[in-house]
Batch of 2 targets.
Target 1
Amino acid sequence: MLQMLVTLLALVLASPPATCTYDTWTWSVVARRVVEHQHVSKPYAQVTEDEKASDWNVTGCTTCREDQERVAVSGLPPVLVCRHFAPRIREALEAALQAGARIETLVGYRVGRSGGPVVDGKRTRYGWHAFGEALDINSKSNGLYGNCKRNTAVPRSVAELGPCRLRVGGAWRPQAAPAQSLTADGAMVSAFRRVLGWRWGGERADSVKDLMHLSPDGY
Ligand SMILES: [Zn+2]
């Protein structure tokens, strides 16, 4: 009898949710703003390939709100991330705080077509945030920079950003605000590397350095 109950419980816990619900938008590179706001609500069985993360086979992460879990760390507003990663994201954030990092703002799950090729002036693909597989930390002290030279080294100081230009958020301040700033050897990036194997947006090899950003591959 107990065996049967345990089996039943395991089945219920492993079964997918009944519905998939989320709000989305598309980034217009022409208008430089979000367009085409859309509310999606449908049976979970109708989730498309487009709505599944590239590592879905392993993680089960999708754009559905139902696949996200709240992570609440020491007095911060809870952040939503993909359920598969939630316990380790909690562990990494707590380890970073213990090691002296300070968290002022945190953004995780955020659905929108912000990547991929541009078609008709609009982005076409979901990035890691849309699947709850990325975090933006302290955007006011860790901006997103563009116009960088490709394949430049991971920056260790503002001077090493060279020709990069600030596009989103506030200027990076690793010397002036070390506890809030993400750096390659700092508490936050180190904790995510150790606990999840995630990479920092400062490690990107293209013309962008997204210094607030952590994800499976840094993009
Ligand atoms: Zn990000």
Target 2
Amino acid sequence: MNNPALKRRLALCLTPLLLALVLIGILSAQHRVTINRQAVTLRTGPGLTYAKVKHQAKSERVRIIGQRHDWYKLALSDHTVAWAPVWRVNHQTKVANGNALSEATIVIDAGHGGSDVGAEAVTDSTKAKYMEKTYTLKVAKLVAKKLRAKGARVLMTRTADQYVSLKDRPKVAERAKADAFISFHFNSSPNANEGSGVTAYYYHHNGSKQLAKLMSKAFAALPLTNLGTKFGDFYVLRENSQPAILCELGYINSKHDFKKIRSTAYQEQVADRVVAAVNRFCQLRAGK
Ligand SMILES: [Zn+2]
């Protein structure tokens, strides 16, 4: 082929064709994935509450054919359809048996933030002000870290000292179809040193009350008085269609409670109790 003009024309025709072939190859490879069935549970729908899909094979090559609120729709080799969490498919690390959290989406809500400081404590010795917003964020971050370590997908309404409106908080749970929404606060009595203890609030009976009960049971191990569960007409609970609770983790304007609230040991203990209760809740909600 000595004709340069013909060579050019041939190259012009072939280059797009080759590019298209490469692109098709990349795209089809992206939509195929191998599922380790010991690490990823497949379900009949996009959520923890759907029934498990029974299986024999240890691993399976599947095709991703869709996605709904962070669950993949998968075409299996036997031409049936199943669902799995996106974060589990992308990170197929094995999780301990009975760890329902690995399939759960949890929204953690650190109360207040930014210009909304929440309740305040004033210590006699330094006259320094301690704000509720600081401690809700500390606990929220700790809980998020521990939940993620168990494989859960965690969304936070805030991760820094910033203002987030009440309206925007439950929206995070709505959009993600979260399995649980947990809001953290600290209480305050009209006069200092008059209140003490922890409370788990619920509004709806859509799993919220059950979650509050499990949380309160877990709180029995905390060093502050357990005030049990209560009905609470809070915006973040009322305007929330997902299971939602609000935890008051002690009275910030009580010297006795604040000594605990500010200690890392107490914050760690609270976070461990929250994770245990949410895991138990997810176990009970999970489709078998
Ligand atoms: Zn508060």
